Amino acid sequence: MENDGESEIRKLETENFPASVLEMADPPKALYLEGVLPDPNEITYLTVVGSRRVTRYGQEACESLISGLTGQPIAIISGLAIGTDTIAHKSALDANLPTVGIPGSGLDRSVLHPSSNRRLADRIVETGGALLSELPPTAPAGIHTFPRRNRIMAGLSKAILIIEAGEKSGTLITARLALDYNREVGAVPGSIFSPQSHGTNQLIRQGATPITNSSDLLEMLGFKTTADEQQTLDLNLLSDAERTIVDLLSIEPLARDELIRQLERPTSETNVLLATMEIKGLIKETLGEICLKSNLQK
């Protein structure tokens, strides 16, 4: 079977399924593969999912967290959908990490869903990654195909990272499936004012691991980390607003309300900015005060 390009779509025999998929209570009866599936004996699989209507905060969180995994034996799994999935795949490619797209359709480019990501699918395969589906190559996507796809993403990986999710988001289904399969679930905390963070904040209340930097993510995956592995501060990479916050906190730690007062910016905007800086590993909040990470002092 061939797609519109040169890469072959192959049907895997059951004995060639990844072991983690065979552990599922309802494993797929067939799997179709295009490209090269990373060796699960050498590479740890991390599924990254989130809202299709991703916010700027969600985009920056996803990019920063995956960028921090550069050089690690980790493959990023996602669903090739618009929004968070697209950002996760592109961030993996930018970080030179293998990535696997699992769409809710067959893999033939005539039906690959969404059509806007067909070029991204090509890039994934061209750079040594893979596309995977339990649907025959020319089977179109349908309402029923996405929950089935989600269970494969949950079952295939060692852990699931939820970037953003509304209170009734379909992304939460993937999280519940991951728990059913005894997988680790991590979630990025978000603003209490953002509807796109209601689901992730709820997951954290229910016991999901809060992920605020790449070290949190590596620890959840079972990698050893130390504070020395945190990124170093490069003022040239900061926005003007971030630089102002670093300047204020380099003098002394500040309570959130006091920092907001000194910045003279809208409270909601500042809270999003602070959350983004915490995700990047630039600041931390402890004992009611916000301070620079110890190894980021100017």
Structure description:
This protein is an alpha/beta fold. It has 2 domains: 9-225, Rossmann fold (3-Layer(aba) Sandwich); 228-296, Orthogonal Bundle (Arc Repressor Mutant, subunit A). Helix content is 36%, strand content 16%. It has 11 helices and 12 strands. It has a 9-stranded mixed sheet, with helices on both faces. A 3-stranded antiparallel sheet has the order 10-12-11. β11 and β12 form a beta hairpin. α5 packs across α6 (171-180). It is elongated, with a radius of gyration of 20 Å. It starts with 8 loop residues before the first strand and ends in a 6-residue tail after the last strand. Mean pLDDT is 88; it is low at 1-5 and 227-232.
Features:
single chain, alpha/beta, Rossmann fold, 2 domains, 9-stranded mixed beta sheet, 3-stranded antiparallel beta sheet, 11 helices, about 35% helix, disordered N terminus
Produce a short descriptive summary.
This protein has eleven helices and twelve strands. With 298 residues, it is α/β, with parallel strands linked by helices. It folds into two domains: 217 residues, Rossmann fold; 69 residues, Arc Repressor Mutant, subunit A.
Q: What structural category characterises the helix and strand content?
A: alpha/beta
Strand elements, count: 12
* Beta-strand content estimate: 15-25%
Number of helices: 11
Average residue pLDDT = 88
Helix content: 25-40%
Multimerization status: single chain
Distance between the termini: 58 Å
Q: What is the fold-level CATH name, i.e. the topology of the largest domain?
A: Rossmann fold
Overall spatial form: elongated
User: Low-confidence parts lasting 5 or more residues at pLDDT below 50?
Assistant: 1-5, 227-232
